[in-house]
Specification:
globular, mainly alpha
Length: about 600
């Protein structure tokens, strides 16, 4: 263990601070339901954006991205499209505004604005989105829990603490024990202080992470001055052909096995499937998790768009400074690093913690660990908050006790938060590794979510019954696919999964009457979506001849393309900077500057116009 007293004091100070934050906001969070779950919708967009970006800066995802950068080099910038990361661009350009205009508290509550509060399928649609939200939240809790445990195990070997633990632990469950300890801190401040404490905790964590990321990037840059990276041809090139074209056999043969197990050898096919899925996933809008809760917490639709745009700007350059810095250290000192896990196999997800443990000075180790622990706690607490909102707001208050007092609501939030964490931790015990959980969430579970949630924005005839059957068929198919198909191959089955869910959506919609006309006209008038809304538009214009439809489809899509280009530039810019690739760096900066100037005119200046 390389942790020194200074490192331990920094970590302890941060953990104590999280407890104090929870206690400080306890009284404010208990004022009412909105104050607890949404911060009373009084938090400025830039604070919520920073908090949202901070929640996305998690240990598990960062470990995964460092391993990707090590193996795939510059081509690794495309692989996070699995999420897809560019969904933030769709949110920024128009979808966050559409969502925030509803004034709902959760995704399930939002359904009432689209399908009404009564009618065929309304209750079923409400219940199925709650089921998906909880499955999604629990999946992300397990994902974060697994990554945290693997991370801590590097710094605190079990041999040093097992004599002080009053029970025996099998080697494969050592990371889970560590995960439980730090999960308790995340659980405390998020459950006690609600959204206010989550946002403040995220802001503090972001400041720590920024300092840590730049420090690691500077160390890597200095180390690289006198050394060269031993990487295969094509590693520095972000572009690709039908095949990946990276051959590590003469350098690190084990990397070729990693590429084969990931299923990315036919990179062109992988990219097409990823982009196909990503566009539809983005059109569906935010999934019912912490990202949606932050959008619903903003003060206005315009601020919702600003918040979503701010996320990429403050997240990507900082995060990829850390990723490329640790990748450089990993490549330079690979032979001195022990990447063997407890089962005896090489685990490239260990590059991040091993590099930190071996190549950073005292004090900086504590700072980086504090930031990454805070990253886990921020993601974990935001996800817990979202799960609480669905259980308390959409189950308890809707079906069990609509007249509950504020005290009852807050008390139940405490109980629900503890139960959600317990179930998420339990699921973490059954997860093989970070990548397997990630692949299931993004390739299988979200595959069942997409079709219904694209149609709800863009097709007037889509109704609550169609939503229910599309979601139900999609989720069941996703679960079956995830059980029988290896995690690395799930993406290639997305078109089939999407078609199954789409068929359920269309058949379910035409099997029952359309949504009540009053609900549709109110939704169309308030949210003002573009798409296939012809009959509803005609009715709204008949009632109000001055009504103007949303004609911004082409402009929104133009801005989306520009936004994705800008997002890629923000991702690769710190990589070119640390690797001293001068010409690509200048080209990237030039492209980014042009895109920003155009978006200032086509997006920022027009926020209030559409």
């Amino acid at each position: 263990m390389r942790l020194h007293l200074l490192d331990l004091l920094i970590i302890a100070a941060y953990l104590l601070l999280t407890v104090l934050i929870g206690l400080y906001y306890r009284k404010k969070a208990r004022q009412n339901k909105d104050s607890y779950m949404l911060g009373g919708r009084t938090i400025p967009w830039y604070k919520l954006g920073l908090s949202d970006a901070s929640d996305m800066f998690d240990i598990s995802g960062t470990m995964w991205m460092v391993s990707l950068c090590f193996v795939y080099g510059m081509k690794s910038i495309w692989i996070p499209w699995l999420w897809p990361v560019f969904n933030q661009v769709f949110l920024m350009m128009y979808l966050s505004r559409w969502l925030r205009r509803s004034n709902a508290s959760t995704g399930a509550e939002w359904l009432a604005t689209r399908f009404g509060k009564t009618g065929p399928g309304v209750t079923a649609s409400h219940q199925v989105v709650i089921a998906f939200a909880l499955l999604s939240c629990l999946g992300f809790l397990a994902y974060g829990f697994v990554g945290l445990g693997k991370f801590i195990e590097i710094f605190v070997p079990w041999e040093l603490v097992r004599d002080y633990v009053p029970f025996a632990v099998a080697p494969q469950y050592v990371p889970h024990v560590y995960g439980i300890v730090f999960t308790l801190f995340a659980m405390f401040y998020s459950i006690i202080g609600g959204m206010h404490s989550i946002v403040l905790g995220d802001m503090i964590k972001y400041a720590i992470m920024t300092a840590a990321c730049f420090s690691i990037a500077i160390i890597a840059y200095i180390q690289l001055q006198s050394k060269q990276l031993a990487v295969p041809e094509g590693w520095f090139n972000p572009f690709f052909g039908w095949r990946l074209g990276l051959d590590w056999s003469r350098l690190i043969p084990e990397v070729n096995s990693k590429i084969a197990s990931d299923g990315y050898s036919l990179f062109g096919l992988f990219f097409m499937m990823m982009a196909f899925k990503g566009v539809f996933a983005s059109l569906a809008g935010p999934a019912p998790n912490y990202d949606m809760q932050k959008i619903l917490s903003t003060r206005s639709p315009e601020e919702a768009s600003k918040m979503s745009g701010f996320v990429s700007i403050i997240l990507l350059p900082i995060r990829y400074s850390l990723i490329i810095g640790l990748t450089v250290l990993g490549l330079l000192y690979y032979r001195q690093m022990n990447l063997t896990d407890s089962a005896g196999s090489i685990d490239f997800e260990r590059i991040l913690p091993v590099a930190i443990n071996n190549f950073l000075p005292t004090g900086l180790v504590g700072l980086v660990l504090t930031g990454l622990l805070g990253a886990f706690m921020g993601t974990f607490s935001g996800t817990v908050n979202a799960a609480q909102a669905y259980i308390v707001n959409d189950i308890y208050l809707k079906y069990l006790n609509p007249s509950a007092t504020t005290r009852q609501i807050i008390s139940l939030n405490y109980v629900v938060g503890i139960l959600v964490v317990a179930v998420g931790v339990l699921l973490g015990f059954f997860a093989k590794d970070v990548n397997s959980v990630l692949q299931f969430i993004v390739s299988a579970l979200y595959g069942g979510y997409i079709a219904s949630n694209v149609l709800k924005w863009h097709w007037w005839r889509f109704n609550a019954t169609g939503f229910f059957w599309g979601m139900l068929v999609g989720i069941v198919a996703a679960m079956l696919f995830g059980f029988f198909i290896p995690a690395g191959n799930l993406l290639y089955f997305f078109p089939l999964l999407f078609a199954i869910s789409l068929a359920g959506s269309v058949v379910g919609s035409y099997a029952t009457p359309p949504t009540d006309a009053a609900v549709l006209t109110e939704f169309y008038r308030t949210v003002r979506p573009w798409g296939f809304w012809g009959p509803v538009h005609a009715q709204v214009v008949a009632e109000d001849p001055t009504f103007q439809p949303n004609r911004n489809f082409r402009l929104n899509m133009f801005n989306v393309v520009l936004g994705i280009i800008a997002q890629l530039c923000l991702t690769i810019l710190p990589m070119y900077l640390i690797l001293m690739q001068q010409l690509p760096l200048l080209i990237t900066v030039g492209i980014l500057a042009v895109v920003v100037i155009i978006l200032k005119k086509t997006w920022w200046n027009r926020l209030s116009a559409y």
